[in-house]
Structures are given as structure tokens and as C-alpha cells.
Write a structure and sequence with these properties.
Elements: H1 9-22, E1 33-39, E2 42-48, E3 51-53
Antiparallel strand pairs: 1-2, 2-3
Length: 69
């Protein structure tokens, strides 16, 4: 929008995804999170519709639904 000073959110997120991919991030689009396996306060794995996934780090981006997960 002409008076919007926040920038172009679509371009920002597309470029951010490109940079993250170049840094080794794997995006799992269309994959449903079915559960989070933990040991104490540490995530050990994520149960998904594509099977169990493990990683060095995890990012949850569910907006207002994040606390529900």
C-alpha cells in the first residue's frame, strides 16, 4: 500500500526463506505436526504426518495457534 511503511511482507518472507534454505534450513510444507517428543524441557523429535523428524533446532511459526501446540 502507498502509505504502508512496513515493507512488502510477501517479498520479505520469500527472501527470508531463500536465505534460510541457503543456510541449510529444510522447510516441510504440507506436513502436519502430530506431536512433540520431549525429554525434560528439550525437544527430542517431532511426530509428523511424514514420520518422526529430528533436528538440531526447531522453529514453530503457527501465529496465534503456537501456544495451543
Amino acid at each position: 500500500l502507498p502509505n504502508d511503511e512496513t515493507g512488502d511482507c510477501k517479498i520479505f518472507t520469500e527472501r527470508l526463506a531463500e536465505l534460510a534454505t541457503a543456510a541449510g534450513v529444510t522447510f516441510r510444507y504440507g506436513t502436519t505436526i502430530e506431536g512433540i517428543d520431549t525429554s525434560g524441557d528439550t525437544i527430542t523429535a517431532i511426530a509428523t504426518s511424514a514420520g518422526t523428524l529430528t533436528a538440531d533446532s526447531y522453529v514453530m511459526a503457527l501465529g496465534s495457534y503456537s501456544p495451543l501446540m
